[in-house]
């Protein structure tokens, strides 16, 4: 990409898209094309086609997607598969029909089998059953990978797919019901600390409720697994706390995406006569249990209460560590370690919450 190339970031208001947008700006790219979901409905094929014809992007980062945590994925199964298939098919199709030079599709590590050998290499794709709770979302992302490969094989395009591990950082969703585990733990732990201090006014502000009475606040918090027994505040976390998860700061993810877009072609990834598994894992190569993550966040925030795990709730996949040797061999490695990234994210969230910009 040249600094003046027309670059469209689909999903620029989301976690990854906003990070890619920030990074490209800091690197001096001057012709960035963005549209929010109200301005451009990527679920609509004709609207998407019209946009591509008008703006003629040369490069596309496909970061637009319907995303959520384990609870949202399990409840809104139809939405997760249907919406994501529509978005990615419309963008990939419009990119080809309007001469986009290169496209980068962002998937997810949930594409891999639930019992895949650890660490998970790209070749583990489609070798076993998926984790049930996020199966619809995973199938949509697998379809995206195969769509990318098929366009490259049939039409000679150079589209790429990258599979990030669990991402976190600035501009994440901190929704108490739909967010991923790390941002959910940050917000809930901060609420626990407020409850310890009996700061009901700020809890009411955080929850956006008009009734800041102690009784109402306690009822509201209990819906999210936060309660007090005597002077001890308890945070209840889904599952056993035993699953391992790998986390990558979204700023590292953005840098990796731009690196791959600039340095890698589809031909670089082809091996043998049967072309498959040309996607690239993006991660750190390190993981942590949910229990240890919760304790780390608890200590960072200064919450003095107790964490309990609700064994009646699903754990999801027990191990999901990515093999990032392909990416490392290409020449990229993460730089933001977990403790540093989590500390930055906590401070970012506190600042944004204080100013009411979340």
Topology of helices and strands:
Blueprint: E1 7-10, H1 15-26, E2 32-33, H2 45-55, E3 59-62, H3 70-75, H4 77-97, E4 102-106, H5 135-155, E5 160-164, E6 166-168, H6 181-196, H7 200-207, H8 214-222, E7 226-229, E8 232-238, E9 244-245, E10 247-249, H9 250-263, E11 280-282, E12 288-289, H10 290-301, E13 306-310, H11 325-330, H12 338-354
Parallel strand pairs: 1-2, 1-3, 3-4, 4-5, 5-11, 6-10, 8-13
Antiparallel strand pairs: 7-8, 9-12
Largest beta sheet: what is the strand line-up? 2-1-3-4-5-11
Radius of gyration: 21 Å
Q: What's the number of helices? A: 12
Cα separation of the termini: 32 Å
Shape: globular
Largest sheet: 6 strands, parallel
* Percentage of residues in DSSP E strands: 5-15%
**Low-pLDDT regions:** none
Helix proportion range: 40-55%
Q: Tell me, rounded to a whole number, the average pLDDT.
A: 94
Extended strand count: 13
Q: What labels describe this entry?
A:
358 residues; alpha/beta; 12 helices; six-stranded parallel β-sheet; three-stranded mixed β-sheet; globular; single chain
């Amino acid at each position: 990409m040249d600094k003046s190339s027309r670059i469209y970031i689909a999903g620029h208001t989301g976690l990854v898209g906003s990070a890619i947008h920030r990074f490209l700006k800091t690197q001096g790219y001057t012709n960035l094309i963005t549209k929010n979901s109200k301005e451009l409905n990527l679920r609509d094929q004709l609207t998407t086609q019209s946009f591509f014809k008008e703006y003629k992007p040369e490069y596309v980062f496909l970061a637009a997607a319907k995303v959520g945590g384990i609870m949202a994925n399990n409840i809104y199964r139809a939405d997760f598969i249907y919406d994501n298939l529509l978005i990615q098919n419309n963008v990939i199709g419009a990119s080809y029909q309007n001469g986009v030079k290169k496209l980068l599709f962002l998937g997810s590590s949930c594409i891999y089998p639930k019992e895949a050998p650890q660490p998970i290499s790209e070749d583990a794709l489609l070798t076993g059953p998926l984790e049930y709770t996020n199966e619809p979302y995973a199938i949509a992302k697998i379809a995206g990978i195969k769509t990318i490969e098929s366009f490259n094989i049939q039409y000679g395009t150079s589209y790429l797919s990258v599979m990030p591990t669990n991402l976190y950082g600035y501009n994440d969703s901190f929704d108490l019901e739909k967010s991923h585990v790390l941002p959910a733990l940050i917000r809930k732990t901060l609420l626990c600390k407020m409850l310890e201090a009996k700061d009901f006014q700020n809890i009411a502000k955080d929850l956006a409720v008009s009734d800041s009475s102690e009784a109402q606040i306690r009822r509201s918090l209990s819906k999210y697994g936060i309660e007090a027994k005597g002077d001890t505040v308890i945070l209840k976390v889904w599952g056993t706390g035993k699953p391992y998860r790998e986390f990558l700061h979204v700023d590292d993810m953005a840098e990796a995406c731009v690196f791959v877009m600039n340095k890698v072609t589809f031909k670089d990834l082809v091996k043998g006569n049967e072309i498959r598994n040309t996607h690239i894992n993006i991660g750190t190569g390190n993981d942590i249990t949910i229990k240890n993550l919760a304790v780390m966040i608890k200590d960072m925030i200064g919450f003095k209460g107790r964490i309990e795990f609700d064994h009646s709730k699903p754990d999801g996949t027990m191990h999901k560590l990515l093999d990032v040797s392909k990416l490392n061999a290409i020449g990229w490695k993460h730089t933001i370690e977990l403790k540093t990234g989590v500390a930055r994210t906590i401070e970012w969230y506190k600042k944004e919450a204080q100013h009411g910009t979340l």
